[in-house]
Amino acid sequence: MSFDIEKLKDLLKAVFDLIDPKRRMSKDSLDLWYLCLKKYDFKEVQGAFSKYIQQPGKGQYVPKPADIIEILSGSYESNAMQAWSKVERSICQVGAYSDVCFDDPLINRTIQDMGGWIKLCQTDEKELKFRAIEFRNRYQSYRGSSKMPAYPKLLYGIATSENSGKELEYKENPIFVGNKEKAAITYQGGKKMNSLEISDGFAGIKLPQIG
Q1: 84 CB contacts (<8 Å, ≥6 apart)?
Q2: Mean pLDDT, the chain, as a whole number?
Q3: How far apart are CA 115 and CA 119, in angstroms?
Q4: Is residue 130 a contact partner of residue 141, using CB atoms and an 8 Å limit?
Q5: Most buried by CB count within 10 Å: which residue of 58, 59, 125, 152?
């Protein structure tokens, strides 16, 4: 949910009226607030202000952009940890053999950037701890972006990569991970993997050329 400066102006006015009704905001201050927060989703910004004003002690003072960004950053870290937990469970429960599509398009994109589903599933337990850190950092970076990046509609598993060279008719049938309806939306809104210029993580793995 993107937002313009007028939405932010109304939100700030409501917050300032609640904390300090005499406080007035200059146009320059509004512009600075907008520059600091425009890359975030407006619904998340609203949530961050809500959390701020509920903080005992701190919430009685008019916030600065850094106060809101601190809350947003914490939320992103939490989201990244939850996303990785979903991925880690899927590595164990689904495995490298099947194609997968997650209910969060940023998970698809992040895994693609890290070399793909097969490579991630084949990571040994010791190395997986470092891959978890890499995933969370990449995921948080995308979450903080003002635009949704291009992402693959699905992540290929071993079965697809092996059959791609056998001239068999290929039919996409990924396992939807997480909320099935959201995963279906992710699938419909994604791009074919061979049309994405994201990473060279699939070097050495022959993928089907679809379309």
Answers
A1: 132, 135, 136, 139
A2: 85
A3: 6
A4: no
A5: 152
The number of beta carbons lying within 10 Å of the beta carbon of residue 66 is 9
Q: Which amino acid is present at 74? A: G
Q: Which residues contact 59 (CB under 8 A, 6 or more apart)?
A: 19, 52, 53
- What gap in Å lies between CA 120 and CA 199, rounded to an integer? 14
Residue 166 has pLDDT above 90, yes or no: no
- Tell me how far the alpha carbon of residue 96 is from its chain's centroid: 22
Q: Taking 60 as the threshold, does the pLDDT of residue 197 lie above it?
A: no
Q: How far is 100 from 120, CA to CA, in rounded Å?
A: 12
pLDDT of 23-82, one tens digit each? 888 999 999 999 999 888 888 899 999 999 999 888 999 999 999 988 887 778 888 999
CB-based contacts of 122: which residues, under 8 Å, 6+ apart? Answer: 96
Residue 56 φ/ψ, nearest 5 degrees = -60, 135
